């Protein structure tokens, strides 16, 4: 028999409850690690050729061996900048800290002069996080060097809880987000790139403020952006044509000098901050930014998908199969499609986990209801014949042990009562259902059993009920049936039942089968008497 769907009001209630759970999970980012794992899976191999205008001048191990131990005098960087100026390079990002005075006299002046001659140098602003005894602060290069720079940019690298760099803030600063990211300053600080607004309207003084969040799409694993060694450029071993017009990122890549960064591309090969900034610039130059869906839209989409899934689970068989076969994988497919088709990241796991939990609860409920349904008549909700016969055996043993009376009542609708037992009549028609509800209402005690034994045949098992009590129950039932608002085709009320009652104290001579056969015999006698009445056999 096909499973009937829940009424719409219950389906809507369950769908709304599941939607609220999904909204709470999405707002609280409860499955955040799962979302990050999905994002890594989607983007780890989604690479692209880096922008051809980018070049990294790497402070690598070979450069350290030939030039000397770190830190180098700033006059060395001045010589490198002059090489780039002579070659006609484009913007130059010096991913190096210049916040203190150089220990070599005159080195700062040489660097400032070289920066001024180049005219396109971008310098980093370091973020010093707040501590218990001090506020957050911006650490700029020394004034002499800063005055000659073409632009400044914040050097903060946003790391997730697991230490992976998946996103960035386009702007940040103390008190307000006024510094562009280094990659943005290198690419085009005037570009109108939109990120997710995150800055507070009125931040506290001295607070480090970030704004314009984006997810990163890396050009590839570490080593994807072209590199040349610092010492090779310094010594003139790189042709000027290789440097002409290039956006250059100068920074450390040697192990121990460059802090390693984990990225979604490869967990076993850390990336240097220098290459990170180059990847940001490449992404911005080629308009490959990955926007993040606004929180309200994120929550609303998840709630909608969960509500549709739960509504389908509570529907008929076709709706349930559609909810499981389509509704469960849909969040992952939709997230992938939005990312690849619209460069928009929607975190799917709050929706997916809620839908999976709802499906698991639905499966448990279906198994439990299926077990209960093995003992229940699916049309009327009363006990079925196997359950009734088991109850009869159990109550017969109890009554025999306690020497207490047991009454069995057989009930059938009379012919001509608006629903005859003939071909074409429906077992779920309104009148038999109404009679079934009345029988269940009169078998009201915890141990009483109401059952459906046939097309229009019912039974009641009344433990610890003497003949007088059984008579009262039967007479009340007959009176209630007569009051049912049922009219036949001729316009005459015809709702009547015939009832047979068998009441005994069980014993060796009165087994369980005797109760059912005795009640059947009394029922036949009631029908022979014209119906609309009862016959009680007591002893």
UniProtKB/TrEMBL annotation:
**Record's GO cellular component terms:** plasma membrane
Q: What Pfam families does the annotation carry?
A: CHASE2 (PF05226), GGDEF (PF00990)
Q: Which intervals hold domain GGDEF?
A: 404-539
Molecular function as annotated in GO:
diguanylate cyclase activity
Q: Which keywords label this protein?
A: Membrane, Signal, Transmembrane, Transmembrane helix
**Organism of origin:** Stenotrophomonas chelatiphaga
The protein's name is diguanylate cyclase
Report the EC code(s) recorded for this entry. 2.7.7.65
Segments traversing the membrane: 296-314, 321-339, 345-365
Return the InterPro entries for the record.
CHASE2, Diguanylate_Cyclase, GGDEF_dom, Nucleotide_cyclase, Rev_trsase/Diguanyl_cyclase
> Per the UniProt entry, what are the Gene Ontology biological process annotations, in alphabetical order?
cell adhesion involved in single-species biofilm formation; negative regulation of bacterial-type flagellum-dependent cell motility
Q: Which reaction does it catalyse?
A: 2 GTP = 3',3'-c-di-GMP + 2 diphosphate
Endpoints of the signal sequence: 1-24
- State the Gene3D superfamilies in the record: 3.30.70.270
């Amino acid at each position: 028999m096909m499973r009937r769907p829940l009424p719409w009001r219950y389906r809507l209630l369950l769908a709304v409850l599941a939607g609220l759970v999904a909204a709470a999970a999405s707002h609280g980012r409860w499955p955040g690690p799962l979302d990050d794992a999905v994002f890594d899976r989607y983007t780890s191999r989604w690479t692209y050729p880096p922008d051809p205008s980018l070049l990294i001048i790497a402070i690598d191990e070979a450069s350290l061996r030939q030039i000397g131990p770190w830190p180098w005098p700033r006059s060395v960087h001045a010589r490198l900048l002059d090489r780039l100026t002579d070659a006609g390079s484009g913007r130059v990002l010096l991913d190096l800290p210049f916040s203190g005075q150089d220990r070599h006299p005159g080195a700062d002046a040489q660097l400032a002069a070289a920066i001024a001659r180049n005219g396109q140098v971008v310098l980093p602003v370091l973020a010093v996080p707040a501590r218990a005894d001090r506020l957050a602060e911006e650490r700029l290069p020394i004034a002499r060097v800063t005055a000659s720079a073409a632009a400044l940019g914040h050097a903060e690298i946003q790391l997730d809880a697991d230490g992976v760099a998946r996103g960035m803030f386009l702007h940040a600063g103390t008190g307000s987000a006024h510094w562009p990211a280094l990659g943005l300053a290198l690419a085009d600080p005037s570009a109108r790139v939109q990120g997710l607004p995150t800055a507070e309207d009125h931040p506290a003084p001295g607070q480090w403020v970030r704004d314009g969040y984006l997810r990163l799409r890396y050009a590839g694993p570490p080593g994807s952006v072209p590199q040349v060694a610092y010492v090779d450029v310094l010594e003139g071993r790189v042709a000027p044509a290789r440097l002409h017009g290039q956006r250059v990122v100068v920074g450390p890549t040697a192990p121990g000098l460059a802090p390693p960064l984990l990225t979604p591309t490869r967990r076993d090969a850390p990336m240097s901050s220098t290459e990170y900034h180059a990847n940001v610039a490449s992404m911005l130059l080629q308009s490959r930014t990955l926007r993040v869906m606004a929180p309200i839209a994120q929550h609303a989409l998840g709630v909608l998908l969960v509500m549709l899934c739960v509504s389908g689970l509570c529907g008929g068989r076709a709706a349930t199969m559609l909810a499981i076969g389509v509704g469960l994988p849909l969040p992952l497919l939709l997230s992938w499609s939005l990312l690849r088709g619209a460069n928009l990241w929607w975190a799917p796991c709050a929706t997916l986990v809620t839908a999976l939990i709802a499906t698991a609860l639905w499966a448990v409920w279906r198994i439990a209801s299926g077990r209960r349904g093995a003992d229940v008549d699916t049309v009327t909700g009363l006990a079925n014949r196997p359950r009734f016969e088991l109850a009869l055996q159990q109550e017969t043993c109890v009554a025999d042990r306690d020497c207490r009376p047991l009454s069995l009542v057989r009930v059938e609708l009379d012919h001509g009562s608006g629903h005859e037992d003939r071909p074409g009549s429906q077992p779920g028609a309104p009148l038999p259902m109404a009679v079934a509800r009345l029988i269940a209402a009169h078998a009201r005690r915890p141990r009483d059993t109401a059952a459906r034994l046939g097309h229009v045949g019912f039974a009641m098992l009344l433990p610890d009920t003497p003949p007088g009590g059984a008579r009262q129950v039967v007479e009340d039932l007959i009176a209630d049936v007569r009051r049912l608002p049922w009219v036949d085709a001729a316009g005459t009320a015809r709702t009547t039942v015939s009832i047979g009652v068998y009441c005994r104290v069980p014993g060796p001579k009165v087994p369980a089968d005797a109760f059912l056969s005795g009640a059947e015999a009394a029922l036949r006698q009631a029908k022979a008497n014209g119906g609309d009445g009862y016959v009680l056999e007591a002893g």
